[in-house]
Amino acid sequence: MADADLYALLGVARDAGPDEIKKAYRRLARDLHPDVNPDPEHQERFKEITAAYEILSDPEKRARYDAGPEAFGGGFGSFGDIFEAFFGSGFGGGSRGPRTRARRGQDVLASVTLDLSETAFGTTSDVTFDSAVVCDACTGAGTASGTFPETCTTCQGRGEVSQVARSFLGQVMTTRPCPRCGGAGTVVAHPCPSCGGEGRTGQRRTVTVKIPAGVEHGMRIRLSGEGPAGVAGGPPGDLYVEVHEREHEVFERDGDDLHCKVSLPMTAAALGTTVTLKTLDGEESLDVKAGTQSGTVLTLRARGVPHLRASGRGDLYVHVEVRTPTHLDASQEQLLRDLAKARGEEHPDGSPGGGGLFGKLRDALGGR
User: Fold this and answer.
1) How many other C-beta atoms lie within 10 A of the C-beta of residue 337?
2) Cα angle vertex 147, ends 200, 226, to 5°?
């Protein structure tokens, strides 16, 4: 609540009487109470209107609030600042009590480099990474043999300390985690010599990862609980394995589709032919029709990469490139000249687009 207006929060005027404030609170509480509306956002709003009512229903607190931010030596930055000014930082939730010393292990990222056939059809791969495991000496407790965590003498085991400040407005109490034990309520006076009190030790681990069919370069596979062990017996983190796919010598991948290039001599493209093509599934015959032009794309259905976590596969697109001979002997050159004469192609005009746009422009200009 950035404006920190308690009256607006309850929907009453600043001169509202005690009965009007009570009725407004009860009306809102009926709709926002956690037993009626468990939505987290509404629960937070219920806490806010309850705190606002606690202040405005108390004549002394209401007078201090009406005095304005200058009465506290500065403005209210947020709704929580008002609560802290009146009740201290522990308002609304009471004493939290000591927290557990256990902490979840952090997540770790490793990588694996695979061939196209492995990412396409799936495989298993060993991944090695730096990690942490539960300490054998203390089994995760972090204490030396025969010892146990001791009650913190600073907070007397509560995990938090309180401080009271006096002002002309009265006493203001603030509560914060104990600086000595970090809120745990206990301290490890005799840490385990093997792990230094953490309950875990560093170790290089190797994990076998199952790679599903259809993964792509850059995808990450999550292995829950395979990350480093937590502090003081806390749960382990997760291991994320990032897939790197090696560049293939023949195929270029586009999602689940594959692309490759086939180069044919001019005569084969003109007369038609059959070529043997290596696919991910092995060798296959590809029929090239007579008169195939350079740039033609032939499609082999379902010869691409299997879809990830779904049935079916992508396609394989074969891009045809027609090679024009650059070195001819006398007899070959004569044969081509005879062919060009027979086809009336001895003196092609080279008009782009045939009878398309350029042909129409030429006609419009009178053939000039």
Assistant:
1) 11
2) 15
Give the start-to-end residue ranges of the domains of the chain.
6-87, 97-135+200-247, 257-326
Question: Domain 6-87 belongs to what topology?
Answer: Helix Hairpins (1.10.287)
- d(Cα 106, Cα 235) in Å, to the nearest integer? 10
Judged against a pLDDT cut of 70, whether residue 79 lies above it is answered with: no
Under CATH, to which class is 257-326 assigned? mainly beta
- Give helix 40-56 / helix 79-87 axis angle, nearest 10°: 50
Highest CATH level, class, for 97-135+200-247 = mainly beta
**Which residue, chain included where needed, has tokens 């129409």?**
360
Specify which residues 163 forms β-bridges with.
174
Distance CA 234, CA 119 (A): 35
Could you report the per-residue pLDDT of 21-72, keeping only the tens digit for each? 999 988 888 777 665 666 667 777 877 888 888 888 888 888 888 876 555 5
Q: Do domains 97-135+200-247 and 257-326 have the same CATH topology?
A: yes
What interhelical angle do 59-66 and 79-87 show, nearest 10? 130
Nearest to 107 by CA among 195, 203, 230: 230
Tell which residue, 267, 281, 208, 199, has the closest CA to residue 234.
199
342, 347, 351, 354: CA torsion to nearest 10:
-20
Give the whole-angstrom CA distance, residue 32 versus residue 272.
78
